[in-house]
Structure formats: C-alpha cells, structure tokens
Amino acid sequence: MKKVLFLLAIFCALTANAQNYLISFAGTGASSAVNTVKVENLMTGTTLTFDGNDILHLTATTGIDQVENGQSSALKVFPNPSIGNPKLQFYPLHAGKAVITVFDITGRKVAQIQRFLEKSLQEFQLTDLNNGFYLINIKGNKYNYSGELLSTGTANGNISIEQITNNKVVDVKQLSNADKGSLATVDMAYSTGDRLKYTVTSGIYSTAIIDIPSQDKTITANFIACTDGDNNNYPVVVIGTQTWMAENLKTTKYNDGTSVPGYCWNNYDINNKNIYGALYSFNVVNTGKLCPTGWRVPSHSEWGELVSYLGGSAGGKMKETGTTHWNSPNTGATNESGFTALPGGARDLDMIFYPIGHSAWFWSSTPGPFGAYYRCLIYDFEGHGWGETMDVYWGYSVRCIKD
Predict the structure, then answer these.
(1) Closest CA to 134 of 155, 165, 163
(2) Nearest Cα to 197, choosing from 94, 56, 352?
(3) What are the residues whose beta carbons fall under 8 Å from the beta carbon of 217, sequence distance 6 or more?
C-alpha cells in the first residue's frame, strides 16, 4: 500500500501542472454551425484562430512529456490511475507506420507493437499491467506523442498492447465526425489554471466565452443577433444573468435607419472606429433608438448589477488584458468576465479628447437630478468609478445590454 501511495504521489507531482485537454465547439440559438474559433490565453497573451470543426488540443509538457521533434503530447490515457487495463486514444497527424512502446519507471521497455495507422482517431488497450508507474510513447510519421500512467494492477506484468478500433469516438461531445479525414486537432500551449477567452463565430453571429479548462469538454456558444443600424455585427457575452455586447458600439444610424447626430470617433480619426467604437452624447442615448433592435443602453442599476456580480476589483475583471490597447500597467486587468472593456477615452464640451488608452467612459440610460449617470474604468486602477455628470453633451462610449 505504501508503494502505491508513493507512486501516486509521483504521478500527481508530474501531472499537476501538465494536463492535456481536448475542447470541441458547438452552436445553439440562432445557429448550430460554428465557422471559426479564436482562442486567447488571457494569462500569456497567446492567440490562435482555427476552423470551427477542428478540435482544440490544449497541451502541457513536463520532463516526461517533452518529445524529440518539439510536438506536444496528444495522447489520452484513461482511466488514469488504472487498475491494470487502461485505454489509449490519439489522433495521428499523418497516416503511416507507428510504434507504440511502454516503459517502466526505470526506463526499461516492457511492451511494444508496430501498426500502420490511418489519419483517424485510434484506440488501443493495455492489459496485464502490474503495480507501477509507466511511460508511454507513440512515434509515427512526423509525430511523437508521450504520456504517463499509474497502474495499481496486480497482474503478472506480461503487458500486451491491443488495437481496439481506429474509428471509436473519444469521450468528448461533438466528436462524432472524428473518423473523417477533414477533422484536425489544433495544438495550443496551456498551463493548469490558465484563463482562456473563446470567440466563437457563425456567420454574422459571435459569442465570447471565458473558461479555465480542467477536463475534455464541448464549448457550446449561444448565438444571439446583435446587428446595429449600419449592419455592424457585435460579439456578445453572458455575465451572470445579463447578456452584453462584447465590443463598444460604433453605429452611425439609429435602429430605425435614421442618422445619429451626436457622435464622433476619438480625435476624429475613423481608424479608431472598429477597435474603440464611437463616442456619443447622452441626448443620443436618451432617444432609446441607439442600440440594435432587442438591445438597450443599460440603466445605472443594471451597471450596478454587473459590478455586484463580479465582486471586488470589478474594473480589472472587465478590462481587456495586456497593454496593446490599455496604457501600462493596466492594473488588475484579468478580463475574467469576458466584457473586454476598451479605453475609448472621451470628448468634452470644448471638443478636447481624453486620449485613447487611458480610460473607458460608458453612459448609462439613467438621468439624474443634474445630468446623467456613467461608469468609468482607468488604466492604473483595478476598481471602477461611477458618478453623475451635468455635461450630457460630452462624448462617452456605449455598451448595450440584451432586452
């Protein structure tokens, strides 16, 4: 029993920061198809975009997982720990001969087979493993996968490797097409606890989802129409019970097709349009026609509900990470809400602009006794500010909330 616990401790130490997960994507709501997926690792700044039918393979390496040709492990071993008869699943990058080898903890080869494998999901079973820690290596045509296994079995140790099928579907939803040659896995480096932002797109629809993966899963995006008077389409994000636009509004037309009179781009530069959106006066907000049909400018209390849901450091949880758009140090920015606040600045009555990168100012739809209420995020503060301004002709950014 002590030996088993010792091996389990080794296994846990080696795998605690080196998990490999398979993430697939599906759609619901306005569309069931997924065209593209953009993944952003909010901890490292890494970004990856791929076809919506592909499988995201989050990879992590330790000294055991490191392989000769620089490819990360794409091997799934389950159950793990095992009582002696685990299964192996993997997806060869290319068809051709592959060698599967099992080593014990001393590095001694204890089992090996060679097979010609198609480029489709493969499944093998190991049998008669004894109690111990094992390393598994699969070397094929331009790929080299490796992983580890803890066995608590009591067999005689005459290990065999048997091919079960080359078309069995892995235990992840939406992988029913895994036997099709067009299916691909896309590798992305991942460390346990990393926060990922998926932007899942289907035609004109786009949904942002925040995730900290801890297992194989299917991410299902709820596609919701969010199209303004200029036919700009916006990504959406669900935060608590609220559904928000995940970008700043940039329309020049009301949702009835008429022109918006009181707007501008920061510094009058149209190049700022697609990133930071437009700056609008409160009189424009107060028409009730600025947001896409089915959406509205959030009230002061609805902003408060968002902040309350996020809890402490709400501003940091709303701000886009990094310093591509925010000034350094962008204090406390985690974007764990997926709101992705951008610092569009503001315009005062003298037509002087607060510079891009410094702060984000958002109107609410709520008038006050002297003017109207707003919310504010700043580059060097992880909280958020709010207040009432008498200057309803100032230009602030707008985010819309779903009716």
Answers:
(1) 155
(2) 56
(3) 21, 23, 24, 172, 173
CB 57 within 8 A of CB 74: yes
The larger pLDDT score, comparing residue 317 to residue 9, is at 317
What is the DSSP secondary-structure string of 13-62?
A: HHHTT---EEEEEEEEET-S---EEEEEETTT--EEEEETTSEEEEE---
Q: Which structural domains are found in the chain, ordered by start? A: 2-189 (2.60.40.2550), 224-402 (no CATH)
User: Tens digits of per-residue pLDDT, 42-71?
Assistant: 998 889 999 998 889 887 643 333 333 333
Q: Report how far residue 141's alpha carbon sits from residue 92's, in angstroms, rounded to the nearest whole number.
A: 8
pLDDT at 123 over 80: yes
pLDDT at 19: 62
Give the dihedral sign, CA 352/353/355/360. positive
Determine the Cα–Cα distance for residues 395 and 134; give it in Å rounded to an integer: 64
Which residues make Cβ contacts (< 8 Å) with residue 220, sequence separation at least 6? 25, 26, 27, 28
The residue among 326 and 13 whose pLDDT is bigger is 326
